[in-house]
Fold each of these.
Amino acid sequence: GAGVSQSPSNKVTEKGKDVELRCDPISGHTALYWYRQSLGQGLEFLIYFQGNSAPDKSGLPSDRFSAERTGGSVSTLTIQRTQQEDSAVYLCASSGGGAGNTIYFGEGSWLTVV
Amino acid sequence: AQSVTQLDSQVPVFEEAPVELRCNYSSSVSVYLFWYVQYPNQGLQLLLKYLSGSTLVESINGFEAEFNKSQTSFHLRKPSVHISDTAEYFCAVSEPGGSYIPTFGRGTSLIVHP
């Protein structure tokens, strides 16, 4: 399809395991965002990629979280040594860049750490 | 730094009644303002946005929002809601010329009862 695609849609993992979440943005979009959505907490910014610029990692909650974007397209968010507080919906979004551009969201990856 | 406050976490309303979802922002510069909607089990999608020009902006499904600079508000309104409007609504702000990372509010859950 033409939208932002995320996988897996649901992931249950044991505490201490590593997880990788994948995002395939809309073709041609230079900007890619990761947000985390927890119940009652709204959207928490994690990381932002824009073209070939260095990513803005200011929202990553700890050094267990990292993300990369290969070839300016697909992005992977990695959470190492998962903790129960990491349980949330991880949302990926993309846009054409620019503060006024519409951001298009994927349906999210629901992570449950048990 | 920019911030967004959505004053109501939940707004219950009867079908065909009017509704207002409140959003206030804080920013030291001019802003772009957005409302996104998240229907159950779906990703966020843009409802409407203010970039410049007319302070009243409308969506295709009957919602409208008015940018009020003096009150730093961007409240969302609809004169008559439908059951299908039941969703989570997020207000967001970004700064033209600044970081392209929008800040989202915590969301307001609109619950429309028959």
Note: Chain B touches chain A through 28 residues (CB under 8 Å).
Amino acid sequence: GAVVSQHPSRVICKSGTSVKIECRSLDFQATTMFWYRQFPKKSLMLMATSNEGSKATYEQGVEKDKFLINHASLTLSTLTVTSAHPEDSSFYICSVSRPEAAQGTQYFGPGTRLLVL
Amino acid sequence: AQTVTQSQPEMSVQEAETVTLSCTYDTSENNYYLFWYKQPPSRQMILVIRQEAYKQQNATENRFSVNFQKAAKSFSLKISDSQLGDTAMYFCAFMGSGGYSTLTFGKGTMLLVSP
């Protein structure tokens, strides 16, 4: 069964509004979650590493004030796209490392399609 | 920084045949992990196979196997007895062995399996 869930699966919003995307690990505790962005027919680009109880680590070029990450519990990380603009339209995917899985293995959520009008 | 290169943007194969997807990488690390992920039209990322660099034996998972050549920094994926459900984008990925290592993906290869 699914290991990681994301909500919503797709969202359409107006330019200037904020959108929150949730990522949940369903049957285990995850101290670390990852957020990726994927443009159509392109590869996954890591945006940030979300650490439970501490600040997220952002990749170079990712605006931390625009893409707010909160990892408030061991099963939930949220990504908030603040003041969204059409160029933020993309597919956002989270992933989790399971403690008992082979080292380095990540399990991915189903993704969230964001369209900013 | 590590880089992962997939030189085949698209590949086609007929059902029941065998196909090999190429992947090369660049790293200065000695211990690391390599992965092949599959992304079907649903866009759900699915782990296909995993290889540990310090293991010489090539990983296999049913119809999927890899040819890992550490000296050449090559990590190709062979799909035997291709099935229509294998149609997907395939991503090769690298991860170092350090505690804060993250996945680096190649650009992907779109595989189309036809009847």
Note: Chain B has no helices and twelve strands.
Amino acid sequence: GQNIDQPTEMTATEGAIVQINCTYQTSGFNGLFWYQQHAGEAPTFLSYNVLDGLEEKGRFSSFLSRSKGYSYLLLKELQMKDSASYLCAALDSNYQLIWGAGTKLIIKP
Amino acid sequence: EAEVAQSPRYKITEKSQAVAFWCDPISGHATLYWYRQILGQGPELLVQFQDESVVDDSQLPKDRFSAERLKGVDSTLKIQPAELGDSAMYLCASSLGGEVGEQYFGPGTRLTVT
């Protein structure tokens, strides 16, 4: 079956760095997305990786290892507004998105 | 900035009643998605349209749910009759089309079935 695993919840301190991991098992692979979702709101796009390596976008970076079925989202200089759920989603061979359950990130002052 | 529109934002209905949600995607976006999201879980795809055609409705409970996108623009998702377990956030998203595309989500409709 197809599966996405990510931690349920993480806690970090304002100003610090946090890494949210995601492992995936899909029928084929055509890329991996990260979305941010604040409570009660819709998901918003953060990043897309299809090649191995690190993609940096401001305070957020996303990494992919296709051989390991692994990705992570790295958030630097954490701000209180970064408190949200972070959803990992993999695109399978049929170009269908397989979604993880999300990681709830709690930022403490 | 163009956005996906959804209405209503909130809906409370009694079980066995009919309920309908509306979505207007970003202009020019050929692909439209309806998702259901239960609190603490990721979105679950209910139906995907490419223009007016259904591409995937394998997870849509067809005995009670229906979806249409008659002119390939806006779309309606209907539930009849609603059940207690249908309480969730219903999200609409659109993308330009093609095989790989960022999905843009609307604000969602929070459904509560009592």
Note: The interface with chain B takes residues 4, 30-31, 33, 40-45, 48, 50, 87, 89, 91, 95-97, 99-102 of chain A (CB under 8 Å).
Amino acid sequence: DAGVTQSPTHLIKTRGQQVTLRCSPISGHKSVSWYQQVLGQGPQFIFQYYEKEERGRGNFPDRFSARQFPNYSSELNVNALLLGDSALYLCASSLASGFRGSYNEQFFGPGTRLTVL
Amino acid sequence: GDSVTQMEGPVTLSEEAFLTINCTYTATGYPSLFWYVQYPGEGLQLLLKATKADDKGSNKGFEATYRKETTSFHLEKGSVQVSDSAVYFCALSGDFSSGSARQLTFGSGTQLTVLP
């Protein structure tokens, strides 16, 4: 079975540009979460989407946005890129969002490495 | 808010040595606790988990016990192998009463290198 897939693998942008990252969850998973991992640090939570609705948002500026499609795939958009946005962006999928009182294990993709020059 | 404090790295051990990576957390209620491993160039893989106090998670020779009284979840392995070289992250998912149950909060990671 295919795991979580992300595209592209690597991306180079310049300051001020906009970027779109894509994620396909494991088949049957309805929840997608996005994390930012700056070099040398642990991942930081950006968004969670479940059934196409935003269910959680981390402490990131409005330049960051996301959406989930009817097939449960997801896109993360970042506008007006800053040098500090350079990071590995990780997508994770799970069966549900965890709101029903039990933790749903999150499965991570390989990430998209974004470099902002 | 929730936070995870992890032992600073890097850690370098010889093959077959004993491994301990310390992890303590701050969270309200009863969070779920996890150890993830990240091999070079790859995403995160769940290594083990514990969802209630005194639970012991174990996998591939690694163990960690959820200690509510000391708010700790230290990772241990009795005999490390070269193939265990990776970055290890301690993480928590908040108690449902805290509103942070749907996200993972990670520590800063510990780089482990095992020499033959």
Note: Residues 54 and 97 of chain B are 20 Å apart (CA to CA).
